[in-house]
Amino acid sequence: MLLPEPMSRVLVVGTKQRLPDTIDILYSLENVHIIDFPADVEGFSLGSPMDAASDASGKLLKLRSVEKDLNIDEKEQVEQVPISKIENNLDATIAELESEVKDTIELRHAKQAQLADLEDKLVQLEPFTSIPLGLEMYRGYTSLKVMAGNIRTNPDSALSEVMSGHYELFTSEKGTFIVLFVSTKQAEEAQRILGQNGFVQVSIPEGEGIPQTIGAALENDIAAVKREIGEINDKIAELSDRHASMVLASDEHLSIKVEKAELPLRMGASAHSFILEAWIPTDSYDQLDQALTAKFGDAVHFELLENRGRADDEASVEESADDETDVADEAPLSLGEETPVKLEHGRNAGHFEFFTKLLSTPRYNEVDPTITVAIFFPMFFGLMVGDVGYGIPFVVLGFLGLRMCTSKDWRAIATMLFYGGIWSIFFGLFLFGDMMGIEFTAPAGHAAGLVPGWETPTWATLLGIDIPHTLFSIGNFDVNLGYYTKLGSVEPLLYMSLWIGIAHLLTGLALGFYNVAIRHGLKQAIMEKLSWILIMVGFACLLPVAIDILIRGHDIDFTNPLLMTGIGLFAVGVIMALGGVGGMAIVELPEVMSNVLSYTRLIAVGMSKAGMALAFNYISLGMIVGIGMENMDPTTNIVMLISALLIFTVGHLAIFILAILSAGLHGIRLQYVELFKKFYEGGGLEFNPLKIKRRYTVEE
Amino acid sequence: MVEMASGLIAIAASVAVGVTGLASAIAEKDIGSAAIGAMAENEKLFGKGLILTVIPETIVIFGLVVAILLWLSM
Prior knowledge:
The complex is a heterodimer.
Chain A: E1 7-15, H1 19-29, E2 33-35, E3 45-46, H2 51-70, E4 81-82, H3 83-125, E5 144-150, H4 156-163, E6 167-171, E7 177-183, H5 187-196, E8 200-201, H6 211-261, E9 268-269, E10 273-281, H7 285-296, E11 301-307, H8 316-323, H9 325-330, E12 340-341, H10 347-351, H11 353-359, H12 370-385, H13 388-404, H14 408-432, E13 434-435, E14 438-439, H15 459-463, E15 470-474, E16 477-480, H16 490-520, H17 522-550, H18 561-581, H19 584-598, H20 601-625, H21 634-675, E17 685-686, E18 697-698
Parallel strand pairs in A: 4-18, 12-17
Antiparallel strand pairs in A: 1-10, 1-11, 2-10, 3-9, 5-7, 5-8, 6-7, 9-10, 13-14, 15-16
Helix pairs in contact in A: 1-7, 2-3, 2-6, 3-6, 4-5, 12-14, 12-20, 12-21, 13-14, 16-17, 16-19, 16-20, 17-18, 18-19, 20-21
Chain B: H1 2-41, H2 46-54, H3 57-72
């Protein structure tokens, strides 16, 4: 539960004929983490892909190109295809698809090229439609030069000045396009004048006839080609619909085949045999053993190399050496890969793995902090929100998220919101007794409201019902609707938050003690972590004394047993820490105080929420039940009511959204920074077993 | 002069919160932009980036505690 699942390193050796079946078994267990075989082990080379790989990848390549041509979307929901059907029809399907799709796609390419060509021609022709000349008139002269193109300013006056009328100029209606006919002798001169007027020549389209007529014909052609392309697209869509499930299923099937066939790349191989090392969870050792024995009898060699212990050094090898003496002697292949970490949790705590992995994967030999996150994060979140009115929407939001989201990350966040909401309802009901920043009821003898001068009504007065302050009693203990108000009793709440901090940090230190103990032994753990536990307990003893002296202004009383115990524990702890971790201990000492003070944010965040809620409530409720309302006319009353409700809604929505951000961030921060630093190292290797995920295919 | 004294306390409290808030903001600004930069290269650094970014928040928490202590002594 606390530590990642125990792992064993196993060795599988066999002849190459057995390889395909072995791989199938390894995949079917879904619990085998292959260790990549190093390339430089004497006598072995890396395995090469099985023959099936090249065939399957060839087919896969064809399929993928069809997929791309047909625009088959990965996420499309299609029926699942049984594998036998794929196996039987694969070649035929690929051949059929290839011919059918290839022809259609080629046709579409051709048509698209034709369309582009036609459109080009039309664009080229377009300016000439405003010149009243047939296209044949533009060419075939020996002594005349024709210039056509766009121009900025009309060159007519300049031309007539220089060329004295020996030219013919056509201008489009807008005056931006001209066609000029001049004698070849004067062409250069004309060119110069045109150049001064910003002339850019265009080529004259081929063909004969009036440009308008040609243009109309071109437009008809374009429409026809577009129609054809549309038909082809329809056909492609139809092909895509018809073949999608088969194509996706075949793709998946072949991908799996390729993946399996390429697995030998991660193994070692000699001429006729393979060798592979893998990590498996210790308790599935028997399962693998049985599966291999059932299939091959003794033909494939399978042995346990070690049951990995938690110590940091390689002492654990000795354990396995007791029953497998030959292993210790040879120890030829210690691939030295880090032990992968498989976290095991129940359904609820499992969601919180997200928050652990957000930071980093735990190491094999340390406590998996997920469970502490699962306990403390929602609790801290709830304490910071601490309001029934926000807690209920959080629960609803979390519930909906769990119902509707499929993504693992969102499910994790939804779980957190759900439990965080439950905690905030709990704290809202029993600790603070408020909803939307409004108290349920004022305890007898207390004025309603949170801060003097800012009295707001309670739910009891607002709704005009009688809400009992004390719900029931257990023995002499009254269970009240709220003991403290967030803004009214800051001092005891802050004090409480410090104690929560100390408890939280002590949890962290205890886990740290355990971590060091399993890694380096009890002695090291005592020096390294117990010292800090003593310092923390000493600090806890000093805390009430310090508050007495600093805040309540009492004198120092050296006979106070708490003070003396605190100083004693603190001193012993510091000496042990100096012995354990050296001078760094002194540097880290102030951290004890700053860590504990950091937990005051539990109350501070709640206070800021309560302060904002108070402001919004003061405005909106003041408008509703405010004084002087009875003198206003009814219309003003309704306008006031609506705007009051609007302020109330918008204000509380803003607080709610801010609560997710601030309570969420501060809640997770207290885990990551304060708690985790006491024991967590992280940076482990995630357990990544061979596994096949089928979406489009089913095994029979 | 009681009024004057409590006014000064209130100002002191606001300075305690305000200045430490600014200090955390300046520190977080630098760390935050660096963290985003690191995340752009490797998304897995989000968790570490978040931690580093919120570390200076302790400054403003201290400021707040001091301010509350002042406020309680008003």
